[in-house]
Amino acid sequence: MSYKDKSLVFQVEEETELLKFLLKVMSSRSRNSVKSILTRGQVSVDDHMETKHNYPLRPGQTVTVLKNKEAKKESVLTGMSILYEDKDIIVINKEAGLLSIATEKEKKLTAHHQLMEHVRREHPANRIFVVHRLDKDTSGVMMFAKSENIKRKLQNSWKDMVKERTYAALVEGEVQRKQGTLKSWIKENKAHVMYSSSRKNDGQLAITHFKKIQSNPNFSLLELQLETGRKNQIRVHMQDLGHPVVGDKKYGSTQNVIGRLGLHAQILSFHHPRTNQLMLFRADVPKSFLAKSK
Prior knowledge:
Elements: E1 2-3, E2 7-11, E3 16-17, H1 18-25, H2 31-39, E4 43-45, E5 48-49, E6 56-57, E7 62-66, H3 68-72, E8 80-85, E9 89-94, H4 111-120, E10 129-130, E11 139-145, H5 148-156, H6 158-161, E12 162-172, E13 179-188, E14 194-197, E15 204-215, E16 219-226, H7 233-241, E17 263-271, E18 278-282, H8 287-292
Parallel strand pairs: 11-17
Antiparallel strand pairs: 1-2, 2-7, 3-6, 4-5, 4-7, 8-9, 9-11, 10-11, 12-16, 12-17, 13-14, 13-15, 15-16, 17-18
C-alpha cells in the first residue's frame, strides 16, 4: 500500500474479486463500510472507476481508494475532474465507469448530478445542461452548458462550432492500413443495436477518419477523428473494419484485457459559444491503451 494526498493505493498480486480484495487490504473496516466505499464510487481500478463487487482483478493492476474525508469534502468529484469552467460552460475529464446522465437504476453517481451539486454550491438556482454524451464506459473530454440558452446554441450549431473531436481506440488485432476513412449510413435495429448500411441515405450518414498510432499482432491503438457524431459510430465502424473496440462485446469484441471499453475522447476543440474564441481540451490516452498496443 502507498499513500497519495487524497487516496490509498494498493497493488494487486493475485487473481481475486474487487470486494474480496478491499476487505483484505482494508481489514480494519467493517464489511458494510467497505461496500459503501465501493457503491459511492470511491474506488478506481487502473484508469477507471469501478463499483461492481465481483469485478475480477488480475496481478499487476492498481486499486485506488479515495479517502472518506476527501470523498465527503464538497470540492471532490467522483470519477471525473474539471478541466475548465466559466460562467457559460464546464469541461470535464470523465473516467470510464461513470454515467454521463441518470438512468432508472442510478440517479446520483453521474457526471450531470455531481456538476449540478457543484454549481449549486455557488447559488441554489444554478443549473447544468447536457450538450453531448459519452457512453458510461468511454472516458475523456466532455462539455456541459450552464444555461439553456448556451445549451441550445451549442447543439443547434454543433457542426459549425466544434472543430475537432479526436478519440483514441484500442482495437483487437493488428490493423494493416496506416490510415483511412470509414463511411456508411448507420441505423438502429429493434434490439437497440446500431449497424451500418452501405445503401445511400439508408440511415444517418456516419464518417470516421482513422490513423494507426502503434500496433502489435494482438492489438492496435488508433486515433479517430469524427466528421459526424452518430450514436455508437466508432464502435460500429471498428466492427465494420474487422477490428472491434476492446471490451465491446455488443459490437464484436471477444476479449476484455483492460477491464473496460477501449475508447477514450482525447481532444475536444470548439469555438466558445459566447466569445467565439477557439478552445482545445485534451485528456491523455489511458496508460492501459498504450501498454497493450506496444
